[in-house]
Amino acid sequence: MQDLFAAEEAHRDWRARLQAAGGVYLILAETTGDLYVGSASGEGGIWSRWREYAHTGHGGNGLLRDLIRQDKAYPANFRFSVLQILPKTIARDEIIRREAIYKQKLGTRARGLSLN
Predict the structure, then answer these.
(1) Which of 28, 66, 67, 84 lies at a CB distance of 3.0 to 4.6 Å from 24, suitable for a disulfide?
(2) Measured between alpha carbons, how far is 5 from 1 in angstroms, rounded to an integer?
(3) d(C-alpha 108, C-alpha 116), whole Å
(4) Contact call for residues 37 and 102 (beta carbons, < 8 A)
């Protein structure tokens, strides 16, 4: 992910497509097998949300923040996947509802990096 955002101009196609879409995504921590389901909506779409992870490592998630305090290299092992593409104009409540469905299906509240 770091490479993608370090050379954004070299990845114009990725940026255009991910900025144009909102959606639900999955982050796999390959070293632990932990999963995190999140969502993106609004102006910058998935691109902006993932850029935040590339810059901070945690994207504002408290559990990820704690893990990074213990191991600064933890985010280097993240694998990002899009679970569902949604229009950026979709109501925030609807995107959260769909995110919750994926959290339930994948069990990320019981075994993962999602608190709610």
Answers:
(1) 84
(2) 7
(3) 9
(4) yes
DSSP 5: H
Neighbour order of strands in the sheet with 78-87: 35-40, 21-29, 78-87
Which helix (H) or strand (E) covers residue 93, if one does? helix 92-106
The pLDDT tens digits of the residues spanning 21-65 come to: 999 999 998 888 889 999 998 889 999 999 898 888 888 888 888
Q: Cα separation of 57 and 43, whole Å?
A: 21
pLDDT grade for 115, boundaries at 50, 70 and 90: low
Domains and CATH numbers, the chain: 2-106 (3.40.1440.10)
Helix H or strand E segment including 37: strand 35-40
Residue 5: predicted pLDDT = 67
Nearest in space to 38 (alpha carbons), one of 105, 107, 110, 100: 100
